[in-house]
């Protein structure tokens, strides 16, 4: 590993650093002169860690200069000259409700994904809800979902009245463990909602084979996976439906927004009708003056949202390529570091989206330094990271749903026994990933330079070299 520092060398350099710079205090971090010095010199991996402590007895070992003080790339990106005209023109036109710009965005997004049709809706969660409902999912059905995902995957299942059944996680890939899917299938299973979580494609080809074997529907949650590919085919085009999010943090940011993609005209007509109150559309027709035909909702995207989306779409491919290049470079830089295990892509992935860059942390290699302390220390070095998701299969919302009037009418008391449900949906690998291992870097960081990726690696190295001191300071 490059620049690996031994404990003895680190301690010697630490003493030298203190001698030449004086007592290290919290005020140093606020000094403009030191910030300029840090910008002008290479990262000091041998100095004191930047994290501060209130423990006076170890204050001399902490509060050093961070590896990085430079800003990370902003997100979302807005180019006044290139982006504003289409948005301002729409606002001035007064045509703000769904019209030509939304249709243009839908056509272009369908082209990106590689499907015949696309329907834009208010967000990714409602895209999933609409898709599941128009595929006929409802009360009494079971829908298989991954344990490692966001609540926006599972809330739509509950909204239909169906029962979410959790499948454990492959910790190497952060994806649903495909080898454990069939064991969860029962006579009540109707659908699988695979999630291309973190923008890393799931093994969708194997899932499609399982679905075909058991006659199950597949709704891809591709909300984090814009432009990701398996065998050169875009995710969101494999299943009966694909669903995307354009929320502000996503790789294509609108603020809020979502989309459904599919090649099934009849299904897409039903989705369109549903998102427009249930009024007639395409093959959803009735007698003259019949009025509203199906129980629907109002989920229409606005014209100015579509205008923002069209502006962002122009640079999505270039950004996706850059994220992939930087992710590969960074992965290679950190893959041999003790205690750091980067993501592993599933077989046949030809492009990832890298909405997040995940790696697993092993505290044993860091002198027993807890993941929480590692994250705080790395963030103090100017490399912001997150621990990611907590176990979704153990949260109170499930009991809340089971205690609702609708669920009590649809299911037997035995089916709504929350303790038995939790036992059946236990996902131990996911628990370990969520509670001990997972660390995320954010997608906007991957829009930087190779030197920025070097800073990330250097930050991890510095925490590793000072793990013992940081651990003592955290006590």
Question: What composes the largest sheet?
Answer: 7 strands, mixed
CATH class of the largest domain, anyone?
Alpha Beta
Assign an overall shape: globular
Helix content: 40-55%
Number of domains: 2
Radius of gyration: 25 Å
- The main sheet orders its strands as 1-11-10-7-6-2-3
- End-to-end separation in angstroms reads 29 Å
Number of strands: 15
Mean pLDDT: 90
**In percent terms, what proportion of residues is strand?**
5-15%
Regions with little confidence, pLDDT below 50 for 5+ residues: 1-40, 56-61
Give the CATH architecture of the largest domain: 3-Layer(aba) Sandwich
How many helices? Answer: 18
**CATH homologous group name of the largest domain:** Type I PLP-dependent aspartate aminotransferase-like (Major domain)
CATH topology of the largest domain: Aspartate Aminotransferase, domain 2
Structural class: alpha/beta
Walkthrough of the structure:
This protein has 475 residues and is of the alpha/beta class. The chain has two domains: 175 residues, Alpha-Beta Complex (Aspartate Aminotransferase, domain 1), CATH 3.90.1150.10; 235 residues, 3-Layer(aba) Sandwich (Aspartate Aminotransferase, domain 2). The chain has 18 helices and 15 strands. The strands form four sheets. It has a seven-stranded mixed beta sheet, sandwiched between helices. A three-stranded antiparallel beta sheet has the order 9-8-13, with no helix packed on it. The longest helix has 19 residues. It starts with 6 loop residues before the first helix and ends with a helix. The N terminus is likely disordered.
């Amino acid at each position: 590993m490059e620049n690996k520092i031994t404990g003895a060398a680190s301690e010697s350099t630490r003493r030298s650093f203190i001698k030449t710079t004086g007592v290290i205090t919290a005020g140093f971090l606020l000094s403009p002169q030191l910030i300029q010095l840090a910008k002008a010199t290479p990262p000091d991996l041998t100095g004191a860690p930047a994290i501060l402590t209130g423990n006076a007895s170890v204050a001399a070992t902490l509060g050093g200069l961070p590896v990085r003080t430079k800003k990370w790339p902003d997100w979302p990106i807005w180019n006044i000259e290139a982006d504003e005209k289409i948005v301002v023109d729409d606002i001035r036109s007064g045509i703000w409700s769904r019209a030509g710009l939304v249709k243009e965005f839908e056509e272009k997004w369908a082209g990106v994904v590689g499907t015949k049709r696309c329907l834009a809706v208010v967000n990714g969660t409602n895209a999933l809800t609409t898709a599941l409902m128009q595929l006929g999912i409802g009360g009494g059905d079971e829908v298989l979902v991954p344990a490692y995902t966001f609540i926006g995957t599972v809330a739509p299942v509950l909204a239909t009245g169906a029962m979410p059944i959790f499948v454990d996680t492959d910790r190497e890939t952060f994806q649903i463990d495909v080898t454990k899917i069939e064991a969860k299938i029962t006579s009540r299973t109707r659908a699988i909602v695979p999630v291309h979580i973190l923008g890393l494609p799931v093994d969708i080809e194997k899932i499609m084979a399982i679905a075909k074997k058991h006659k199950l529907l597949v709704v891809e949650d591709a909300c984090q996976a814009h432009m990701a590919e398996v065998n050169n085919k875009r995710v969101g085009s494999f299943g009966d439906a694909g669903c995307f999010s354009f929320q502000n943090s996503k790789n294509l940011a609108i603020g809020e927004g979502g989309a459904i993609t599919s090649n099934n005209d009849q299904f897409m007509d039903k989705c369109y009708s549903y998102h427009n109150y249930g009024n007639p559309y395409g093959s959803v027709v009735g007698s003259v003056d019949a009025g509203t035909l199906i129980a629907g909702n109002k989920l229409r995207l606005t014209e100015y949202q579509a205008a923002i989306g069209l502006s962002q779409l122009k640079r999505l491919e270039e950004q996706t390529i850059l994220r992939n290049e930087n992710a590969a470079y960074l992965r290679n830089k950190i893959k041999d570091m003790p205690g750091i295990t980067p993501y592993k892509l599933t077989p046949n992935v030809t492009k990832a989206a890298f909405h997040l860059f995940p790696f697993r942390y092993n505290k044993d290699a860091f002198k027993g330094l807890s993941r929480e302390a590692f994250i705080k220390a790395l963030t103090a070095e100017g490399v912001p990271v997150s621990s990611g998701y907590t176990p979704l299969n153990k949260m109170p919302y499930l009991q809340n749903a089971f205690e609702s009037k609708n669920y009590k009418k649809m299911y037997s008391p035995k089916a709504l026994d929350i303790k038995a449900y939790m036992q059946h949906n236990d996902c131990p690998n996911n628990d370990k990933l969520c509670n001990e291992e997972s660390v995320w870097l954010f997608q906007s960081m991957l829009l930087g330079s190779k030197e920025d990726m070097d800073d990330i690696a250097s930050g991890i190295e510095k925490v590793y070299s000072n793990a013992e001191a940081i651990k003592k300071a955290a006590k």
